[in-house]
Amino acid sequence: MQNTQTKKDTTRNVIPFRHQGEFYFSHGVKAFQQKHFERAEKWMKKAIECSPKNALYLCQLSVLYTEMGEYHRANEVLQKVLDTNENLYTDCYYLLANNYAHLGLFYESKKYADKYLDVEKDGEFKEEVEELLSLIDQVFLDELEEDDLEFENEDELMIYQETAFYHLEHKEWTKALDVLEEMIMLYPEYSQSKHEYAYALFENGDHEEAITLEEAWFEKDEKSLHSMLNLTYFYHQTNHEKANSFQSLINNVYPTYEPQKLKMAITFARCGEYEKAYQRFQSLRSKSVTNYMSYYYWFSRTLEKLDFHEESQKLWEKGIHRHLDLKIVYGR
What we know:
The chain is mainly alpha-helical. The chain has 2 domains: about 20-145, Alpha Horseshoe (Serine Threonine Protein Phosphatase 5, Tetratricopeptide repeat); about 170-330, Tetratricopeptide repeat domain (Serine Threonine Protein Phosphatase 5, Tetratricopeptide repeat, Alpha Horseshoe). Helix 13 runs antiparallel to helix 14 and helix 13 (about 225-235) runs parallel beside helix 15. Helices cover about 75% and strands about 0% of the residues. InterPro entries: TPR-like_helical_dom_sf, TPR_rpt. Keywords: TPR repeat.
């Protein structure tokens, strides 16, 4: 009895050791500096559990996501900071502008870059923001030369584009179809959404309807690269009699726009044309496509099929570091 009582008294006097947010955060920063991104994310999330509204922890997590190419997730975190600390953490505007630029959402990027300069006349990131705005202006000029379409509400369109892109990259076909259907109704001039709708429809199992839609659009515009790539893939997957002719059709097409170049490379890979896919992947400016999970999956798969096993594994691991969802969504 005495031993039991002594044990109880000793236990009562023990003070439980509780890790504070600073402890977790310091380990997260260290892991981040060593480029152990998954480990860094775990530590930083633990720190945020201790202090959910700590802007420093949240901002560092957003920077981690940016480094990993997870720009959507980075922006979600930054918006949380602004919701509670808008006037104190104006650097978030610069970080948001930078992330949206990486996503190709230049209207959103410009909005936050302008906002940063409005509130920080001589801020730490003034030069970077001014350089970013200069690049955005150049992009707008290039787009005007290529496309005369004008939309009354560009910001809203960009949000739709970003949302659709996220669902397509995560193979969330039903959600993508809902967003794309709204885009087609609200922005009928924006033709790309129609082709993305057909693609999502096909991947969702509605092969006949997807092919019928895409064939109708191709009849109206036989120079449409979107139609050519979709039909090449659709015909290959369904063993259609036109499969070979459409693969031949795209052999001599060389787009200049990076997302189209990427889709061309992926289409060749999906059709088992790995040598051609490899050549197209090699022509990409890698920095411009790192926010695509599909880039890492299909390029690494192409390398594997061509017996570049070491290069394939390195690229796949790099993709996993940048996109935590890559292994879950695409698997290998």
